[in-house]
Write a structure and sequence with these properties.
heteropentamer; A mainly alpha (about 500); B alpha/beta (about 180); C mainly alpha (about 625); D mainly alpha (about 120); E mainly alpha (about 300); A: about 500 residues; C: about 625 residues; mainly alpha; 2 domains
Chain lengths: ~500, ~180, ~625, ~120, ~300
């Protein structure tokens, strides 16, 4: 059964089924959704198995070419955690899609969704920067198409903006990769990481700037994140959920894999091969993202747009946490990534259910939702409270760790975290405003009939938020391992991939 | 018990707190009575603000039917040992308003008057004299107007109602008013 | 054995989960809330001073020690808060307002945790838990819109406060590597001579939090809104118990005395303490002045709470033995009388359906028990001797005078006199005066409510006449923070510095003179009872005049002359600062969001400009 | 000298110029399809850049035959084959992106009735 | 035994305070009349009035009304036993001035509750004015008493008296002259004499709090006023005039203070409420603050 130990299945199976789905589509369009569901549930099961049975760290080599010569997948703690997250989110969104995608081109949606999941999993798993580019493009192309899906006009506009910005981003990334290749003649992340000090500092800085800029587009950092509000608002809610719960996860992963593992110095906070400290650059960008995102979300009347800006800001917070670079900060950042993914996915799904029931996207439509649909409004509040970092909800622990880490780091991170906390107060305002609207009783509308299919993922997500809040070890143990992988470049990553390589 | 009553009457006579119902020209006689020239405070007579506190009610002149209503209400609000002083001829027989349609002629028909002061109007000396007279009456236990009022309540009420009925408007509807105008 | 400290936290949490499940069955929900409070009270009986417990929490991949430590202060606070909570939840069994039992239980869990914990992680966790549970509790008030606004405002202040504490505790952690409160405090005390400014900065980060929670002067603006628009049965808890968390926190940090450590002193006080005394005094005066003119009765009493907390802060900031005794004692007294007042207000509001003073009046005929409770409550709040509010106010004056803080004392006296004014205004407008015909069918509260009211009446009189029962434990607390406790001569004495007040003696004196009064009353001539219509109206007959009880009730602009006097002070709006900050943020937000213009080219341009900036940065570096 | 410079850097200069031209088009032209063309030009520039780094003057093709020796005296003289294969992948990906972009462009023209990128906005921010 | 002795002594002090107060009121009326060039009533006129009032029928508005008005007198009587009166000092350990002041507040509260429960707006307006005025005079008075506290290093009236022993020059009146003047003006407000009698303005609000009081209720009101005069002037005597060796001198000293108040009362018109308060917060408070500064610095 060695084939089932092969993590390449996590990419291969979805891609295989993605391209065979049109065949199923010939039988029945509804069948394709079930195929998607089953495929992703295989992914979820398998990745959770890897995660829980502690089948990592391990590498998967392609065609028996050992790294650095062959292409390889690396499953470390980070990859295991994030691929599980991606698969589980994909599974839950797929359950939601069973209900939500009824009209239109169901087959193609299923194809794209599977490709999207596969691409995101691939980004997290791969050990090769060019493969990272390929998976990024797979994710990208499928997400452009997904974002354009749906009857609404605004979806197309959003998708186009995403496409343009993202194309520029991937071009920059590719240029950066090329530059590194000219220096080291290899594309393997582990080898580059080990030999990074053999490069010309000026060129390396330039390459790093290009790569960071390119990946910041996917990781939603300002000023590379212009597409976020339009695309999130334009896309149908299932897709917005997928973008924030899956796409952003892989984007942030890619950014920090490069910034920390490739450019990082082992065991220190800085990544300073070359002239520029990329962690500091990312910290500044991330802080700007948090502040701008929260301030922009403050005056939104449209809840979906607000969630979009909030997504952006939350990704900024994740990036702040990771960019602190000490173990606690990375722990907090990854924890926050998990929390954000869960909560934001849930909120978009809730919004989807509400919009489908005719509630509307405006904040005024949320008045008295408590009377109309107690479950959905409670779940939404749970999500909001988790975002705000209230205790007994998941978000508390991650925010706690991020703030703790930045103060532990000290220096100008005190200032950064001050700005972030100010932005959090702004965030509290607009989330609590919605919660307040939901729990007011001045609604004259009748009770909503909530279909049961989409409530399954929402329920699971809400319960998991509270579960993480009460027992933070559920995520905490894994993200602590992840933090140790990220902060210990050699022992955590490079030596696991290429045991024979000499430390620089 | 009767000694207590006598003692109480003695004190009541020496501490008469008055409420002056200033309808007519008698009101102008009261300020000199109170102030330095005649100083009624030496008899223990002090002006009071409300009927609740007062012992004697001074009706200082003519009473229109409208004001009679108020006087009756005020009188009924006073507490039990209470006395009424009628000022001048207006309260006795209507005085110069003897033929007025709107002024009552005999105050005694409506509330029990313990003492009338003759004159039109009585001068402060007369008022002071009346206080002394009233004090004697009280001491003797002869000023029992308030008991009379309770005893003959129906009679007083009937008299009051007879005049109060006339206060209801003759013209019932506003159209009639405009027509007549 | 010591694990019952854990159960102090977990019992309410479990109760909360059950209550949340049974949320739709109102009575069961209330019953569970009450019984959980009762069980917790039972658990508190099992705790004793010096009890410790610790466990390790696996967090951030390492073990964070959580520790519990019961001090004299914590056990005192535990008792008073849980006993009051039990009474309140017993009262709320019959109440129909929308108080959420499970949130109250969450607050209880946080309450027990805050008072017993010895590590800052638990402290912060519990603080946040208490914060959000109370925020959501505020949400369900009678007036939807306003309670929503109030909750939002409260939430922002509260979150701001907890972030400040966040900063503080992690800064301490960075310095000492430990989360333990006691060792961190010891550390701060040890370095205060070397780096007084550092200590000041860290402590002020914590104090901002405590001041926000207690509603002290620059951060008081949320108090009236949140108190006024919270559910009526939650407001007593908010005012009586939750405002004391801030006081508890301050008491934790106050022993880091900056005295003798090179800080300049004013009137024998370190200047920081001196500033805090003045902050307390300003709070007291401000609360009083603002309370005069409120028409909403809950808002009025919210300002009253503000004022009383000002007293407490002023007293404990002195950090002398009298000051701390007086502060803690006043905290207890405030809990008792303000709790009683807010409970009676809840009763009145639930029966009359309004909280506007100008719409009430004359209710004493309909709700006599509530009336008497309220009467004793305001007598206590005004500091009238045989009732419980007097002793602490008296001690506060003495403590201030001892430091020669004359002007502060005068202002506190002004606040106290003013307190009498607004308390009487509320008393008159609710219970006295003309009874409107709208309230002809108003009934006294049900039996449960009456039991609670009798209990509170008894408590206010009992602790007034027998202050020793409180002063003894307070003395232990004072001793535990390292000051000389005041001598307690007997249960009936409040011992000051110059003289003592024999409370039972005052009680006897009053009782005997009342007996004489009643004898005189009954041997003198008879009185008869008249209706409220039979009233002095300057001879006018009410029926002819079209006079109704509402028009013959004086409760609008009760202290109008005062308004003219205080008019200049009304132009200063602290609230305006925070609102201005909010407006500024909103305007900035609307400006910032213009960045996202919705044009793909502009977004690309951003990316390119960002890239160029980064390249230039790299180049320069 | 000039020739040598051109020999060494012509591809690099070319690729950078292509990227610049593409960016200029993307940033300035309001027509959606022209923007897509611009993106394509950027991509071509990138690809050219990648191919260019694999080649250096007088390199031989990287295919091992009897006549085509890849190394002389241990010194590699063949061009690097890997970037060329990467470029192939990149071209395919670019093709996919372009196809999708064109599709979206057509759909936008159908729904919005315009190809002006400045008019594709959501009302209110 | 001790208890009964104290009880009887207390009753004695209470009776003394009532009779002295009523006598002062009567003499006050006489003196005012003389200033007005009138003859005036006999000095015992107020005894007559009180007796008459208690013998008169009355109306009541319910038990709150009864209770409040009884409380008004009783609480003051309860406070007066703690006042050192000449050689009579019943509870020397318990004569804290602030305690007495707060106990007096009980009387105001009772009175206010009683008259307001009658439901007459005039009464409530009167109470509102009285309380506003109280806010006015309490502040300078507080300034003065706290200055005395600091000056004498004690808060107990017994000790304050003891601190002033040894002749006229040791009196606080001489040592703290500004404070004495401030307290004297505050006393004018406390006694409710003109120009600070806006609470009972008969022509504006029909005698304010007394509007619904009849018979014995008014009698209780008069008793309260009598005890109030005794208590307030007594506090002033103890604070500033060094107490007294015996009751008679004590009463004479009280009368001196009351006499000043009477003279002012006889010749001045009435302030408006806010004028009264702002006056109190200007001149007396200024004096009090000057005194406080002198004491503290």
């Amino acid at each position: 059964m060695s084939i089932f130990n092969n993590a390449a299945l996590l990419i291969g199976v979805p891609l295989l089924f993605a391209f065979s789905i049109p065949l199923f589509g010939l039988i029945s369009k509804q069948l394709t959704k079930w195929v998607t569901l089953l495929t992703i549930s295989f992914n979820a099961t398998f990745s959770l198995y890897i995660l829980l049975a502690h089948k990592y760290p391990s590498i998967v080599v392609m065609g028996n070419w050992l790294p650095p010569f062959g292409e390889n997948l690396y499953i470390g703690p980070v990859a295991a955690l994030l691929v599980s997250l991606i698969s589980v989110m994909g599974l839950l969104i797929a359950i939601y899609n069973l209900w939500s995608i009824k009209k239109g081109d169901v087959t193609r949606f299923s194809v794209l969704f599977l490709m999207f999941t596969a691409g995101a999993s691939g980004m997290v798993l791969t050990g090769d920067i060019f493969n990272l580019f390929i998976f990024m493009e797979i994710t990208g192309i499928s997400s452009f198409a997904l974002a354009a899906y749906g009857p609404e006009k605004r979806a197309l506009g959003g998708a186009f903006k995403f496409l343009v910005v993202s194309s520029i981003g991937s071009t920059l990334y590719l240029l950066g990769v090329t530059l590194i290749y000219t220096q080291l003649g290899t594309l393997n992340i582990a080898e580059i990481a080990a030999r990074i000090n053999q490069t010309t500092p000026g060129l390396l800085t330039f390459a790093g700037v290009l790569i960071v800029s390119g990946l910041a587009v996917e990781a939603e950092l300002f000023p590379f994140n212009g597409w976020v509000p339009d695309t999130y608002t334009g896309a149908i809610n299932g897709v917005s959920a997928a973008l924030s719960g899956i796409g952003a996860v892989s984007g942030v992963y890619a950014l920090f894999r490069i910034a920390m593992t490739v450019f990082g110095k082992d065991g220190t906070y800085v990544s300073s091969y070359g002239n520029l400290n990329f962690m500091a650059v990312i910290a500044v960008l991330a802080t700007a993202t948090v502040v701008i995102g929260e301030l922009s979300a403050l005056t939104q009347k449209n809840v979906k747009k607000m969630l979009a800006y909030s997504s952006m800001a939350q990704m900024g917070l994740v990036a702040v946490g990771l960019s602190i670079g000490n173990e606690l900060g990375v722990y907090g950042g990854i924890f926050q990534l998990v929390n954000h993914s869960i909560a934001k996915t849930m909120m978009f799904l809730i919004l989807g259910v509400l919009v489908a029931s005719g509630v509307g996207e405006n904040i005024d439509d949320f008045r008295g939702l408590w009377k109309r649909s107690p479950f959905l409004s409670l779940a939404f509040s749970v999500g909001a409270f988790s975002m705000l970092g209230f205790p007994l909800f998941g978000g508390f622990w991650s925010k706690f760790a991020i703030v703790g880490a930045s103060i532990q780091r000290g220096g100008w991170y005190d200032f950064i975290i001050g700005l972030v906390l100010f932005a959090s107060i702004v965030e509290a305002f607009y989330y609590l405003r919605i919660v307040g609207y939901m729990f007011s009783s001045d609604s004259k509308f009748p009770k909503l009939k909530t279909p049961w299919t989409p409530t399954i993922p929402i329920f699971i997500l809400a319960v998991s938020i509270i579960a993480i809040g009460v027992f933070p070890q559920i995520v905490g143990t894994f993200s602590a391992q992840a933090a140790s992988e990220f902060t210990h470049k050699m022992s955590g990553y490079v030596l696991n991939v290429i045991p024979t390589i000499a430390a620089h | 018990m009767s000694e207590w009553k006598e003692l109480a009457d003695y004190f009541r006579g020496r501490s008469m707190w008055m409420l002056h119902y200033c309808t007519g020209c008698g009101a102008i006689e009261l300020p000199p009575t109170m102030t330095s020239r005649w100083d009624m405070e030496r008899f223990g007579v002090v002006p009071m603000a409300t009927p609740r506190q007062a012992d004697i009610l001074l009706i200082t002149g003519y009473l229109s039917i409208k004001s009679l209503k108020r006087v009756v209400y005020t009188y009924e609000q006073m507490s039990a040992p209470k006395w009424v002083l009628g000022f001048g001829s207006c309260t006795i027989n209507g005085g110069i308003y003897w033929d007025s349609y709107s002024v009552i002629k005999r105050l005694d028909k409506y509330i029990p008057v313990d003492l009338y002061i003759a004159g039109c109007m009585p001068r402060p000396e007369a008022i002071l004299d009346s206080f002394v007279k009233l004090r004697e009456l009280i001491k003797k236990g002869e000023a029992k107007g308030y008991e009379k009022y309770v005893k003959n309540f129906e009679w007083y009420k009937a008299n009051q109602d007879k005049v109060f009925r006339r206060t209801t408007p003759v013209l019932k509807k506003p159209e009639e008013v405009t027509k007549s105008a | 054995m010591n694990s019952n400290l854990i159960w102090l936290v977990f019992t309410p949490l479990i109760g909360s989960a059950i209550a949340a499940i049974l949320y739709n069955y109102k009575f069961l929900d209330r019953l569970i809330t009450f019984s959980t409070f009762a069980i917790t009270l039972f658990l508190v009986f099992g705790t004793h001073v010096g009890q410790t417990y610790s466990m390790n929490l696996n967090f951030m991949g390492r073990m964070i020690p959580l520790s519990w430590n019961v001090t004299h202060l914590s056990i005192f606070m535990l008792y008073i808060s849980i006993v009051f909570g039990t009474i309140l939840t017993f009262y709320s069994l019959m109440d129909r307002s929308r108080m959420k039992g499970f949130l109250l239980l969450l607050i209880l869990a946080a309450n027990n945790w805050i008072f017993t914990t010895n590590d800052m992680v638990g402290f912060f966790f519990a603080w946040e838990l208490m914060g959000w549970a109370s925020i959501v509790s505020v949400l369900g008030g009678r007036k939807e819109r306003k309670s929503r606004h109030a909750a939002l405002y409260y939430a922002l202040m509260s979150i701001g406060g907890s972030y400040s504490m966040f900063f503080g505790l992690f800064t301490l952690w960075r310095l000492t590597g430990s989360f333990s409160i006691s060792s961190n405090l010891a550390y701060l005390s040890s370095i205060v001579g070397v780096h007084p400014w550092w200590v000041l900065g860290i402590v002020s980060l914590f104090f901002v939090t405590f001041m926000i929670k207690a509603g002290i002067f620059p951060f008081h603006t949320w108090v009236p809104m949140a108190y006024a628009y919270a559910p009526d049965t939650f407001t007593p808890f908010l005012s009586a118990v939750m405002s004391k968390y801030g006081i508890y926190g301050m008491l934790l940090f106050l022993p880091i005395s900056l005295m003798e450590k090179g800080m300049p002193t004013v009137f024998g006080l370190p200047w920081v303490n001196y500033i805090f005394v003045w902050i307390g005094v300003i709070t007291a005066v401000l609360g009083t002045v603002l309370a005069f003119f409120q028409d909403d009765v809950k808002k009025l009493f919210a300002y009253s709470s503000l004022s009383n907390l000002g007293y407490i802060v002023a007293a404990i900031s002195l950090f002398t033995s009298v000051g701390v005794t007086a502060g803690i004692y006043h905290a207890f007294n405030h809990l008792l009388f303000k709790g009683a007042l807010f409970i009676t207000l809840a009763a009145v509001i639930s029966r009359s359906g309004t909280s506007k003073l100008s719409e009430m009046g004359g209710l004493w005929k309909k709700m006599p028990v509530t009336f008497f409770t309220f009467f004793i409550g305001i007598a206590s709040a005004a500091g009238i001797p045989p009732f419980n509010g007097f002793g602490s106010k008296w001690l506060i004056y003495q403590s201030m005078i001892k430091q020669h803080l004359l002007f502060a004392t005068i202002l506190l006296f002004l606040a106290s006199t003013g307190a009498f004014l607004y308390l009487f205004k509320a008393f008159h407008s609710i219970f006295l005066g003309q009874l409107s015909h709208n309230y002809d069918n108003v009934k006294e509260v049900p039996v449960i409510g009456q039991i609670v009211e009798y209990l509170l009446m008894f408590a206010m009189i009992f602790f007034g006449i027998q202050p020793g029962y409180i002063l003894r434990p307070v003395g232990l607390i004072v001793k535990s923070v390292g000051l000389n406790p005041l001598a307690v001569m007997g249960n009936g004495y409040v011992t000051g510095m110059f003289s003592n007040v024999d409370m039972p003696l005052i009680g006897w004196s009053l009782a005997i003179s009342f007996v004489f009064g009643f004898i005189l009353f009954f041997i003198s001539a008879k009185h008869k009872y008249v209706s409220q219509e039979d009233n002095y109206t300057a001879g006018q007959i009410p029926q002819d005049w079209g006079l109704t009880p509402e028009t013959y009730q004086f409760s609008w602009k009760f202290y109008e002359p005062m308004e003219k006097l205080f008019a200049p002070f009304y132009r200063i709006k602290i609230d305006g600062f925070f609102r201005g900050l909010g407006d500024w943020t909103r305007i900035t937000g609307s400006a910032v969001k213009q960045v996202f213009v919705g044009n793909a080219q502009i977004y690309t341009l951003f990316a390119v400009v960002g890239l160029i900036i980064l390249v230039i940065a790299g180049w320069v570096a | 000298m000039m020739q040598e410079f051109l020999q060494n850097y012509v591809y690099l200069i070319g690729s950078m110029s292509l990227i610049g031209i593409g960016l200029y088009i993307t940033l300035t032209d309001e027509n959606i399809f022209k923007i897509i063309v611009g993106l394509n030009i950027i991509e071509s520039g990138t690809n050219l850049f990648m191919v260019a780094i694999a080649w250096y003057p007088k390199a031989v093709m990287p295919i091992y035959t009897l006549t085509n020796k890849l190394s002389i005296n241990g010194k590699v003289i063949a061009a690097d084959p890997l970037p060329q294969s990467l470029v192939l992948t990149a071209i395919v990906i670019g093709l996919g992106t372009t196809a999708l972009a064109l599709t979206i462009g057509i759909k936008i023209f159908e729904k919005y009735g315009t190809l002006d990128v400045r008019k594709i906005k959501e009302a209110g921010r | 035994m001790m208890f009964f002795l104290k009880l009887i002594q207390s009753i004695g002090v209470g009776a003394l305070s009532i009779s002295v107060g009523l006598l002062f009121m009567g003499i006050g009326r006489k003196i005012t009349a003389r200033i007005h060039r009138r003859y005036g009533p006999p000095a015992i006129q107020n005894f007559i009035d009180v007796f008459k009032l208690f013998s008169k029928n009355s109306i009541s508005h319910g038990f709150a009304y009864d209770l409040g008005i009884i409380a008004g007198t009783s609480a003051l009587l309860a406070a007066v036993v703690f006042l050192p009166v000449g050689q009579i000092n019943l509870f020397p350990a318990n004569s804290s001035l602030i305690m007495i002041l707060y106990l007096m507040t009980m009387a105001y509260l009772g009175m206010a509750m009683g008259v307001s429960s009658s439901g007459n707006p005039n009464a409530t307006i009167g109470i509102s004015r009285a309380l506003t005025m109280m806010m006015g005079y309490k502040v300078p008075f507080a300034a003065v008493i706290f200055s005395v506290y600091i000056f004498a290093r004690t808060g107990s009236l017994t000790n304050i008296i003891a601190a002033q022993s040894g002749g006229l020059l040791n009196w606080n009146m001489i040592r703290l002259p500004f404070g004495f003047i401030a307290a004297e003006i505050a006393l004018q407000g406390m006694l409710g004499e003109k120009p600070f009698d806006m609470a009972i303005a008969p022509a504006e609000i029909a005698s304010g709090p007394m509007v619904e009081m009849s018979g014995k209720y008014l009698g209780f009101g008069m008793l309260q006023h009598a005890v109030g005069i005794f208590l307030e002037t007594g506090i002033m005597v103890n604070l500033f005039m060094g107490g007294a060796p015996n009751v008679w001198i004590f009463v004479i000293k009280q009368f001196e203070l009351f006499f000043i108040a009477l003279l002012v009362n006889a010749i001045l018109p009435r302030f408006r409420v806010e004028e009264g308060v702002s006056f109190m917060w200007k001149i007396p408070l200024l004096l009090g603050v000057i005194q406080a500064l002198i004491v503290v610095l």
